[in-house]
Amino acid sequence: MSDAIADAKRALRAELRERRNLLSEAALETAGSGVREQLDALVEQLDVRSMSCYLSIQTEPDTREFVVEAVRRGIRVLLPVTRADGLLDWAVATDEGEVAEGLFGLSEPTGELLGPIAVNDVDLLVIPAAAVDASGMRLGWGRGYFDKTLGSMEGCPPVYAVVFDTEVLDEVPQDLHDQPVTGVVTPTRTLTLAPTAR
């Protein structure tokens, strides 16, 4: 990655992180409710039986309630578990939502770990992002876990990134290893940006 691209990514992430940190509790609650409605509609539209999602942190639109409700409706939901080698293991979500602290202080599911290829059988991937642009290029938070996962999948299913409405941008800085997404879910809308993620 060139220094210019790395610097541009760092600057944009810092700006987005600062904006998220300034959001009120009420704004975060409203965003979480909207994202849950959008994800419910997407799952129904795509007739999803199994999917991956993630457990949101405090400054992200909430995905936790969606995960619990999806499990209760009989959808098999895989949640990511970070590994030191930069890959993701997966664990099946339960409606109790038991979690422990993971590598980077993030909440991660407890229970039996499935290897990185467990996600190859899902109908939909829902992943976090800092921003997504109009072409479907996703800016992550810099660790590369989801880019590696998407880049290694054959026959990748639809991939939707979850962001706030203001984080759908005209363009984000990108490098060769960055992976595009099929679409984006915000608190007010779901946009399909490309027919497939790759």
TrEMBL record:
Superkingdom: Bacteria
Enzyme Commission number(s) of this protein: 6.3.3.2
Catalysed reaction, written as an equation: (6S)-5-formyl-5,6,7,8-tetrahydrofolate + ATP = (6R)-5,10-methenyltetrahydrofolate + ADP + phosphate
GO molecular function: 5-formyltetrahydrofolate cyclo-ligase activity
Cofactor: Mg(2+)
Gene3D superfamilies linked: NagB/RpiA/CoA transferase-like
Pfam families recorded: 5-FTHF_cyc-lig
Keyword field: ATP-binding, Ligase, Magnesium, Metal-binding, Nucleotide-binding
InterPro entries: FTHF_cligase, FTHF_cligase-like_sf, NagB/RpiA_transferase-like
Thylakoid is among the record's keywords: no
Family (UniProt): Belongs to the 5-formyltetrahydrofolate cyclo-ligase family.
Xref: NCBIfam families: MTHFS_bact
Protein name, per record: 5-formyltetrahydrofolate cyclo-ligase
Species this protein is from: Microbacterium marmarense
